[in-house]
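The step that takes the researchers longest sounds almost clerical: writing a folded protein down as plain text. The outcome of that step, for a single protein, is printed below.
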Amino acid sequence: MSRTEVCPVHKKCGGCRYQGVPYKEQLKIKEKMVGKLMGKYCKIYPIAGMENPKHYRNKVHAVFDRDKKGNIISGVYKEGTHQVIPVESCMIEDVLADEIIGTIRKLAKSFKIKTYDEDTGYGLLRHVLVKRGFATGQVMVVIVTGSPVFPSRNNFVKALLKEHPQITTIIHNINDKRTSMVLGEREKVLYGKGYIEDILCGKKFRISAKSFYQVNPIQTELLYKKAIEAAGFTGKEYVIDAYCGIGTIGMVASDYVDSVVGVELNRDAVRDAIGNAKVNNIKNIRFVCEDAGRFMVRLADAARRDSSVRLPDVVLLDPPRSGSDEAFLSSLVKMGPRTVVYVSCNPVTLERDVKWLEKKGYKAKGVWPVDMFPFTEHIETIVSLVRKNNRKSKPDTYVKLSLDMDDYYRIKDEEDGAEIK
């Protein structure tokens, strides 16, 4: 196997397992991996790679610490540990984000800011998170501290903005708990609006500090377009977008269907999603702040008790790496949507879930691998599944979806009189 450029810390970092492997060979490896897992179910289409596979990450996270000499360092945790590996620049991270983090490292030294010690719980500066809208150029900087007290905070912000006037908002996040979580519950906007915006598939999206947004926007557009094609929309469908985040794929799909309901547990993401729908003037999408599995169970039960409840024609799902749980998949099968479009970042759990769905009456029709994460072992995959025996669609008698009504889509739970929001 021929070699190519290698990052000096890749062996310690562990993030880019395909460092030194030519990009075309990386694509072949990933396509083969997906084919080995999914080829027994249906056709595997050629992998969609990038023209320029470097510096694609629009979100960069750095953890702060001190080395043995007491110097402030920032970087990533060594794989499987909490030992910080210093990183000056990274070939897959946004260049400007790396420069901003480097500036914060220097400012922390000049302002005599102590870094957080995980063992003792003392110190201030824990993490820095930088998000950038590649289409808009907007930049968010999130400074995570172990205490709400941030000495010389205003002067620190002024110094940072002087070095990087491209920054459009700065947020102070407080994480004072002994936890491995990066962000805490409390935050204060120090500069700007407290969010950034980006444009994806022609739609504008608001991105907050805590909301999820795909880290590779170039490939995300390709991913969503392929997912829409795989769904085979006719314009009449009622769609559920499960694990919807800030509503990206559901809003893209809204142009091609009758109505969409997005389901997401993260309340900050739902708040952004509602705002995004209003900004884009999308009238046929609503959002539910709830665990996707729990929502699907309740909707299936409501339809069983009330024949007027309309069930989805298509379900789009993009679950975490652990995949979907059996409660969600069982409810999905009970609903019987004609098409399921499963977007996965883990081929192993994808294969497990597709195998389960095939036993329950669905047939995989195609697999489309998309390389969202060049130089890493990760791969994004789309699978289209079609129900073998299509059910008859119920009449459109459920509550009409309109953002002029409440912010949440509701279905009545007849057993306890509660409403699901």
User: Anything to note?
Assistant: Residues 90 and 98 are 7 Å apart (CA to CA).
